UniProtKB/TrEMBL annotation:
<dbReference type="InterPro" id="IPR015813">
    <property type="entry name" value="Pyrv/PenolPyrv_kinase-like_dom"/>
</dbReference>
<comment type="similarity">
    <text>Belongs to the PEPCase type 2 family.</text>
</comment>
<dbReference type="GO" id="GO:0006107">
    <property type="term" value="P:oxaloacetate metabolic process"/>
</dbReference>
<dbReference type="GO" id="GO:0015977">
    <property type="term" value="P:carbon fixation"/>
</dbReference>
<keyword id="KW-0120">Carbon dioxide fixation</keyword>
<dbReference type="GO" id="GO:0008964">
    <property type="term" value="F:phosphoenolpyruvate carboxylase activity"/>
</dbReference>
<dbReference type="GO" id="GO:0000287">
    <property type="term" value="F:magnesium ion binding"/>
</dbReference>
<dbReference type="InterPro" id="IPR007566">
    <property type="entry name" value="PEP_COase_arc-type"/>
</dbReference>
<comment type="function">
    <text>Catalyzes the irreversible beta-carboxylation of phosphoenolpyruvate (PEP) to form oxaloacetate (OAA), a four-carbon dicarboxylic acid source for the tricarboxylic acid cycle.</text>
</comment>
<keyword id="KW-0456">Lyase</keyword>
<dbReference type="Pfam" id="PF14010">
    <property type="entry name" value="PEPcase_2"/>
</dbReference>
<comment type="subunit">
    <text>Homotetramer.</text>
</comment>
<keyword id="KW-0460">Magnesium</keyword>
<protein>
    <recommendedName>
        <fullName>Phosphoenolpyruvate carboxylase</fullName>
        <ecNumber>4.1.1.31</ecNumber>
    </recommendedName>
</protein>
<dbReference type="GO" id="GO:0006099">
    <property type="term" value="P:tricarboxylic acid cycle"/>
</dbReference>
Length: 474
């Protein structure tokens, strides 16, 4: 059973879950969250994020200890999945050795499962590798586990072989799921996957396509179309190699990050029909009534996969100048984004991705907050990021792009509802949006709050109040 809904720890929620012991969830709260996602929401998978966060590597043991009745009836690794996102040593040098610890934890978790179930069960057998750019990176992780974590059990330690002393390692292999996040990686994803599959006999391969970081780097429209191009090419690889490809797409609450909300589920399913697994991020789970969330997850699970649509190359001839304009406008707003982002509350205890022990998220050389705070900051000043770069496109070009990005006009209408025309007084290059906004209804209360922030009244209370109106933080 390949999951249809993956619960994630991405912190785009306005409201704090009832089980949280602090506004910024972490540690024990996230153990409870896994159980809540499985038992109440009935999501089939939880991503356990070792990349960028302080997390509990004993999650499997704690789940068995706290919720034994549930997990005796619902096997972890079969009925429900726990899938770690691990550090990529090619990028995260300071966290590189955490990859070793994470892979060791895979085998250790199987020991807990053996004691719990009385037989061999692998509660974790897949890992997600972020920022994948080559098949070599995937093969390194695959062989690191197989040749070094598992095979070392046959080495002799003084008078015994390692497995005779500490027990056998299980599972013997793991699946590695590439997470593609850049334009180049997305457009090359099919060939990267083809190379990775070339020397393996796999029944299926899961592939994770990002939505948030591509949107932040290249603009909303380009991000959607890069993903759709990747989905079509991956579909072709699966057919040619006779391997089932199961795509995952990382969709969040704002249209900029995927517009995956309980009320917009059907539109997202129609936009990405070939996707197998959709990510239910924190806003999806905690900013709507529980019954609405459960019904939305059931709609996803009941929908059959379709076919990916071909995206012609001429689409990207149009999006290139759009991306250039988006980046230019975004960089002009960067100082304001950084200032307001300081007041966007953190909902997870994350490691910093800048500074001594992190890598920097940059767009054209300008350091920016992560995608959720980036999106929240722009909405908070009345400039939804979905709208940036539109001056590069004619109405005819927008109509043409909407043939392949089907929800384009719907997403723009949503974003214009939260646009504040007064932002052009501070940033005159956005005057074109004031003219476009005349065609759309706007939320007056949201406009009042963003107007106060624009005038310099920046505080967390106003940021959160505006977020509660639109239904997501970022």
């Amino acid at each position: 059973m390949i999951p249809r809904v993956m619960s994630t720890q991405h912190p785009d929620n306005v409201f704090i879950p009832f089980f949280a012991t602090a506004p910024d969830m972490g540690g024990e709260d996230e153990i409870t969250e896994v159980f809540y996602a499985f038992n109440v929401l009935r999501a089939e998978e939880q991503m356990w994020d070792f990349e960028g966060k302080e997390v509990d590597e004993f999650v499997v043991r704690k789940l068995f200890e706290r919720y034994p009745n549930f997990f005796r009836k619902n096997r972890l690794g079969e009925d429900f999945r726990l899938t770690p996102r691990v550090p990529n040593p090619s990028v995260e040098k300071a966290e590189a050795k955490l990859l070793l610890e994470t892979l060791e934890a895979v085998a250790r978790s199987a020991d807990y499962a053996r004691l719990f179930y009385g037989e061999e069960v692998a509660p974790i057998f897949e890992v997600i590798l972020p920022m994948t750019t080559s098949s070599a990176e995937l093969n390194r992780v695959y062989h690191l586990y197989k040749r070094y974590i598992v095979w070392k059990q046959y080495k002799r330690v003084y008078d015994v072989k390692l497995y005779e002393w500490i027990g056998r390692f299980f599972p013997e292999e793991i699946n590695v799921i590439p997470l593609f996040e850049t334009k180049e990686a997305l457009l090359n994803s099919a060939e990267i996957v083809r190379e990775y599959l070339s020397d393996k006999e796999l029944e299926y391969q899961r592939v994770f396509l990002a939505r948030s970081d591509p949107a932040m780097n290249y603009g909303l429209i380009s991000a959607v179309l890069y993903d759709k191009k990747a989905l079509y090419e991956l579909q072709k690889v699966g057919e040619e190699e006779s391997v089932e490809i199961y795509p995952i797409i990382g969709v969040g609450g704002a249209p900029f990050r995927g517009h995956f909300t309980p009320e917009n589920v059907d539109a997202v399913l129609a936009e990405y029909p070939s996707v197998q697994t959709y990510t239910a991020q924190s806003s999806f789970k905690y900013d709507r009534p529980t019954m609405e969330v459960i019904k939305a997850i059931e709609r996803v699970k009941s929908k059959s996969r379709g076919k990916a649509e071909e995206v012609p190359e001429e689409v990207f001839e149009i999006t290139e100048p759009y991306t250039e304009r988006y980046q230019k406008e975004m960089l002009a707003l960067a100082p304001m984004i950084r200032e307001v982002a300081r007041y966007v509350p953190s909902r997870r205890r994350r490691k910093l991705h800048v500074g001594l022990f992190g890598y920097s998220r940059e767009v054209n050389g300008s350091a920016l907050p992560r995608a959720i705070k980036f999106t929240a900051a722009l909405y908070s000043i009345g400039v939804p990021p979905e709208l940036l770069g539109l001056s590069a496109l004619s109405e005819k070009e927008l109509e043409f792009l909407s043939e392949y990005y089907h929800g384009l006009y719907r997403d723009l209408e949503f974003a214009f509802r939260y646009f504040n025309p007064r932002v052009a007084e501070r940033f005159p290059f956005l005057e074109y949006l004031v003219k476009m906004a005349k065609e759309y209804e706007r939320d007056d209360r949201h406009g009042e709050i963003t107007g106060r922030i624009l005038k310099g009244e920046i505080n967390e209370g106003l940021v959160v109040e505006a977020a509660s109106i639109r239904g997501f933080l970022g």
